[in-house]
Design brief:
The protein is an alpha+beta fold. Helices cover 43% and strands 18% of the residues. The strands form three sheets. Strands 1, 2, 3, 8, 9, 10, 11, 12 and 13 form a nine-stranded antiparallel β-sheet that branches. Strands 4-7 form a two-stranded antiparallel ribbon. Strands 5-6 form a two-stranded antiparallel ribbon.
Amino acid sequence: MKEDMVEKKGTNKLNEEIQEVVMRMKDGTKTAEGKPRRTMWFLTLDIIRSMGPNCANRGGDGSPKSVIFGGVPRIRWSAQAIQFVCRWILKNNPIVAEYFAAVRTREIATLLKNVLLEMGTTKQDAATWAKELESVVFETKKTTEKKKTMKKEQDAKALEAAASAAAEVLSTQVVDGEVMVSEEASPDDSADATSDSGEKKVKDDRSLVFLSPSEVRLIAKQVVEKKGLILGRKIKVVRKELSDLLRGMPRIEDDFDRKLGGGMSANIEGLLNDAVMCISHAVSTEECTSEIDYIAALDDLKRDEKGAAFLGQAEYSATVMHFTVVINVNALFDESELGNDKKRLILSEIVKAYMMGIPAGRRNKMFSDTEAEFVMVHAWDGAPMSMVNAFHRPVSVRNGKTILDASREALQSHSSKMVTSYGTALGVREVSRYQFGADDICEFSKKVANEFIK
């Protein structure tokens, strides 16, 4: 009996604690733990765009990418294609370009070499130290074994060439002042043995590394001061030193593109950072398949001849697309020393870039860059969710409404259901809406930034 009372008392206490958490989450000024809410955690953009005939994102066969969703075929754009074009919009936007200056490349040796030369280092030292950085960042057990195998192959070829040359010398005789070569050692054999330069092309399987200009300059300064990078030490020691150097560097606000997309390096922990942004694949809101465009071209100098000088075909589609962008606003500006005005500027330009960005496939032949027709912005305290199920049942034309109208209504309806069902659990709430023709895109993006950074 006592045990039952204790258990009941414990259950009641747990229920009280749960109710207290729920009340805190309903209070928009506090988190579930009762702490004051600094900013909204996650921002989601749900973007709807109507596209004319296009092949904005195609697969390896040249056809528009597709997917089966809701049991029917749809047109699809990959998240990478969307992110690529939006990243370049930000990098070439003079208002915020300085904050998106990181470079994603395998050619880190070239980056360092150029900076070292600017600092007055000799060409030889710059080349040597840049190669050292490359080996420190990319060298793995696998690549080391590859190099050893290639070295053995090169040594074997060099030995074979030397033996062939020696055999040729031994078989050469001088008769009446003329050089005679025996049939056993043909010059062609020696030529074949030495025709290869010894450098074997191997597939470059190194990962891409994100480096900001400030990080390259910091590494260059360290290398110049120490007159080298490795300095006869173990690679493992150098990597730890490099990681500590990058982590301890003063915060320079020039790598927001890396913060959005994430940084990756298997060997240098100081170059690792999780992406603060997620992007869904764009999916057509209606059932849609691609169609075929037959192309014919005439020869200007043979206009009298029948038939075309060129025949070809290209696939295309025309539909309404939806995709979601998720940004962890707190993580984006974590440890940033920028003022709120600068933070709002950066966030507003990111929002604007993703409202404007369209994958650029076949743009010259099928130009179909269009405006964002409708955008919904939500804030989430917990893990955000996609709104793609608004279109699990494909929309269609009915009651005089267009596909675009039906798509907008479906998204609004799903948003309302999401807020009702998960508003308490995840703190989701609608922040703003953009309607083409009713709102200015610049003012809208500023409004969104002001809501998230106060």
